[in-house]
Amino acid sequence: VTIRRVLVVGSGGREHALAWRFARDPAAPDVLVAPGSAGMTDVARRHEVRESDAAGLLALCKEQRVDLAVIGPEAPLATGVADTLEAGGVTVFGASRSAARLESSKSFAKEIMRAAGVRTARAEWHDALDSARRALDRATPPYVIKADGLAGGKGVVVTSARAEADDFLAQCLSADRFGESGRRVLIEEYLAGEEATVMAVCDGARFVLLPAARDYKRARDGDQGPNTGGMGAFAPLPLADAQGAAIGREIILPVLSEMMRRGHPLRGVLYCGLMMRDGKATVIEFNVRFGDPETEVVLPLLDGSLTALLSSAARGRVDGAAVSQRPGATVGVAIVDEGYPESVRGGGRLEGLDAVASQPELAVFHAASERHEGGWRIRGGRAAYVVAHAEDRVRARARVYAALAGVGGTGWRVRSDIAAGDLADRGLQDEAEVQRGEA
Ligand code: AMP
Ligand code: GLY
């Protein structure tokens, strides 16, 4: 099947990266995006349909004769946009509403993992402040507390400070900070180790692994500050790629089988947030979509046809031969509003980004930004990502920070330690151990 026209649903950096990669597909499809952002018009045509507007998206697919629709964000998946498109006869890559519960309900995900025998952190659930506080009395720090539902990556606190833990419980269970999503909390066992993101493109029964990545979730250098939607990432992550076969056998296949057995086959991405320790992976969380910002660093590492990969999965027969991994490494850094995530002000300015985007081996993926007086204005927390590719991670990192040094403006900041220092070095050390272990 030749994909002549593909629609990307969403408007963030992940969706820009998808559209950018589709624009480079050997099938040379038309790329549409809904609603998209101003930054995506370099690679896609925008249509003003909201990502939550299932009927509007179906009408758009019909009218434009879209051959493949790819849904980026979790919210439309959780409300069943993929179901509506599929029922209307559209080939759609994205989880059904029932499969999306793997992400939208942490308790459902734990239940599936228990049934499938997948290693994950022990957890207990609380709906009442009293019982949750008593659970913390029994727990040993660091405390890990999570809102049960979707909270935009901000519904998790990992802290050794009891006051902070209590405060988060109160925000969820009495102040209603996350609404319905936070009326139930999980208190979870703390896992030590190296984090890894492994994404699998799934057709319900089978899967194809994409290169593993590391995401930097904390707001500040040195992994300080609150959790964010993601401050940067790099790929590949050999430490996790070396365990790919085991991750497929012990995590991905059992979960796909259990979801199938329950009548919720997952056609879409199974995103595994993993903690790696002693060569073993333990699941922190599942998502049913491409990671953000992992996608921004993983897609530039793929050769071949992403449309062929995703449409084959959507049709129930994923074709692993459609893509292959390019040599080298990518590093991506988020440009965020100065006050992100606690107090986003907006209105900052970015200058020189277009010059960065036009350089070889560099890409700019826009998120909450808009064009303004020849530059870009910041509209929200994460404005844009700058991603560099090079022969290896050290060079990719040097290239991305050199590019950022040429970006001007006001009201924004970046983490200066993505893919560097302690965190990446620890990863490298482990990789060396893995390689020695295999020799
Ligand atoms: P989540 O949204 O569940 O991925 O959690 C956000 C971040 O909190 C993760 O990427 C980890 O850095 C951290 N985290 C979550 N759960 C745990 C855990 N059980 N042990 C240690 N760190 C965790
Ligand atoms: N980067 C984390 C996520 O996409 O949930």
Keywords summarizing the entry:
alpha+beta, single chain, binds glycine, binds adenosine monophosphate, 439 residues, globular, 33% helix
Any overview of this molecule?
This protein has 439 residues and is of the alpha+beta class. The chain has 15 helices and 25 strands. It has helices at residues 13-23, 54-64, 74-78, 81-87, 101-104, 106-116, 129-138, 162-173, 238-241, 244-261, 294-298, 306-314, 353-357, 393-405, 421-438, and strands at residues 5-10, 30-35, 45-46, 68-71, 92-93, 123-126, 143-147, 156-159, 185-188, 194-203, 207-209, 214-220, 224-235, 267-277, 280-287, 302-304, 323-325, 329-337, 349-351, 362-366, 369-372, 375-378, 382-390, 408-410, 412-413. The strands form 6 sheets. Strands 12, 13, 18, 20, 23 and 25 form a 6-stranded antiparallel beta sheet that branches. Strands 3-2-1-4-5 form a 5-stranded parallel beta sheet, with helices on both faces. Strands 6-9-7-8 form a 4-stranded antiparallel beta sheet, with helices on both faces. Strand 10 and strand 11 form a beta hairpin. Helix 2 (54-64) crosses helix 4 (81-87), helix 6 (106-116) packs across helix 10 and helix 7 (129-138) runs antiparallel to helix 8 (162-173). The chain is globular. Residues 427-439 have low confidence and may be disordered. Bound molecules: adenosine monophosphate and glycine. The site of adenosine monophosphate has 16 residues, from strand 7, strand 8 and strand 15. Adenosine monophosphate (AMP) binds at residues 121, 144, 146, 153, 156, 158, 188-191, 195, 217, 227, 273, 284-285.
